[in-house]
Amino acid sequence: MAFAQDVLQNYYGYPSFRRGQEEIVASILARRDTLGIMPTGGGKSLCYQIPALLLDGVTLVISPLISLMKDQVDALHSIDVPATYINSSLSQEEVDERMVTAAQGSYKLLYVAPERLESPRFTAMIKKLPVPLVAVDEAHCLSAWGHDFRPSYLAIAKMIDLLPVRPIVAAFTATATKKVTEDIVNLLGLRGNNVFIAGFDRENLTFNVVRGANKRDFVTEYAAANREQSGIVYAATRKEVDQLHHYLQKKGFAVGKYHAGLTEEERTLAQEQFLYDDVRIMVATNAFGMGIDKSNVRYVVHYNMPKNMEAYYQEAGRAGRDGEKSACTLLFSPQDVQIQKFLIEQSQAADERKAFEYKKLQAMVDYCHTTRCLRQYILHYFDDAHDGDCGNCSNCNDSRELVDVTVEAQKVFSCVRRMNENFGATMVAKVLKGSKSQKVLQLGLQRLSTYGIMTRQTEKEIVDFIHRLIAEGYLTLTEGQYPVVKLAPPAVGVLKGKENVWQKVQQKQEQIVADDSLFEALRRLRRQLAQDEGVPPYIIFPDSTLREMSRVCPLNKSALRGVKGVGEAKLAKYGEIFLTFLRDYVAENEQLTAGD
What pairs with residue 393 in β-bridges? Predict the structure, then answer.
């Protein structure tokens, strides 16, 4: 492990391992099969990259996406580690050339897609390589009971059996229940019981659930408050992605979009624009993200509730991979539940599988309604329960003022009843507002006693209020394309004056990260260097490294070497550039101070 510590410091620029990393690296170096379960952003790739540098031969890394391979290889090249990838973006001639080079010992890591292992020609070439270690990334894809099953992953074990000498096998995932963990161990044939759970907690992430808000307005205000930060907004359907992307673009935001309905060229361009900070916001379906190693995503907003907790935590975990403070917000509306139920019903899955998906969906719904600590809820789901509130989620930090809205709620409930529970939220709001729309007048709804009893609010405000009442269980929505508002049992007690309704007022959006002039200046320098080299900015240095630079302001190589994330290769390549910039910055500020 002393050699591993040296590699960690000299190549990666970190003086110590993160939680869980050291035990996993030690297990692999002791030539034991290993399963590492670590949260997204917990440093899984380093756990196999360091052993790869210390073992003789070329480590084979099974990776699910082309973009992920490219990002990983680019990052390794930036610290002078010889690595390459083989995937469908290459011609057969290029594949053959890289395999010959690998056989000559020119690479320490070779990334391949699992589908490649189904080719007899390719597995024949692999058999000629000295492979001391096979690392399986996103190992939950092995399990049919996971949230992202990939049948091609089942070819990994067969490939391992074909190798002349059985290598060490190491598997990694961020989200695995007990059932998925058992599947990974059995399907890969992992020997021994070397399962390391580094904890699922991501302490730098703030978790928020927002119920009943106008989603489009929320995203617009949130993006405006964090205009200089990178963020991902996940939506459930392609249509919603297209609409929200168009809306934000019209509002002047630098925004891209990503979903399976776009061409491969369009998706690649959108992804590169996001990685290179040409666009700050990516609006996407869940097709986007597994291959994204972008470290400085400051926020992830779920426009719709995901289908299960595994999907949510993996997607939310793409925020703050550099360890910096970041936010994960889920915008919940009851309609999200109906969408997910519809998708389950439309699937070709067996009844047993559908029942399993419904159970996981209910756990996600419960998360959106729970009043206890959100972090505790997540960790308990993954059997990693912690005691005490986190003090860093919307439930723990909800200091908004409680307001008695019983009278307004009674007006809504009374109107729903007088409309015979036959209309949607928008029509109920029109009646309460006193709208003179053609449909209201045609149906004679202006004759109801509740017509126009909430004229002081806008229709939008009334609709939002109705959705909050739905989220809190006073009202329900029917299933279908045009859901109808119904009274739920708790509303009866309110109408009779036996129960009060309390709600908390919405707060103004806050910035995730405070302004820092030196940090922003360093980001501009990094962006220029990245453009010159044709790589994403975080490949130069992650935000966490720039933030530490702005805090300690190193003015010589010794001090810069002490900044986390500055290894020897990057010190040699970028050290003088950043030092010159920092010295000039200090000198300029000293002159300004003297002038004052």
Answer: 207
